[in-house]
């Protein structure tokens, strides 16, 4: 689903893929990433991430990146 407050994209380099997600809004946003098989958190601007089975709650101006499992 398109959301003008959340930017997300996938970067690919060789056999590595990273998904980057950023909330550009001052309120919480909910997103579903269950279609992606996340492997490891790479970076976040908050000390923890709130997720439940692929459903993420992004806090105000939160951003993070996950490495995705190899295909």
Describe this structure in words.
This protein is mostly beta strands. 0% of the residues lie in helices and 56% in strands. It contains no helices and 7 strands. A hairpin with a 2-residue loop joins strand 5 and strand 6. The mean pLDDT is 92.
- Regions with pLDDT < 50 over 5+ consecutive residues? none
> What is the number of beta strands?
7
Indicate the overall shape: globular
Q: How helical, in percent, are the residues?
A: under 10%
Characterize the biggest β-sheet. Answer: 4 strands, antiparallel
Radius of gyration equals 12 Å
Order of helices and strands: EEEEEEE
Cα(first) to Cα(last) distance is 23 Å
| Fraction in beta strands | over 45%
Q: Structural class given helices, strands, pairing?
A: mainly beta
Helix tally? 0
- Can you list the strand order of the major beta sheet? 1-2-7-4
Mean pLDDT: 92
Topology, pairings included?
Blueprint: E1 6-13, E2 16-23, E3 29-32, E4 38-44, E5 50-52, E6 55-58, E7 63-68
Antiparallel strand pairs: 1-2, 2-7, 3-6, 4-7, 5-6
């Amino acid at each position: 689903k398109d959301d003008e407050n959340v930017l997300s994209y996938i970067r690919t380099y060789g056999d590595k893929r990273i998904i980057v997600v950023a909330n550009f809004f001052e309120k919480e946003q909910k997103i579903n990433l269950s279609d992606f098989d996340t492997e490891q958190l790479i970076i976040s601007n908050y000390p923890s991430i709130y997720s439940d089975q692929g459903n993420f709650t992004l806090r105000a101006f939160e951003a993070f990146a996950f490495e995705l499992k190899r295909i």
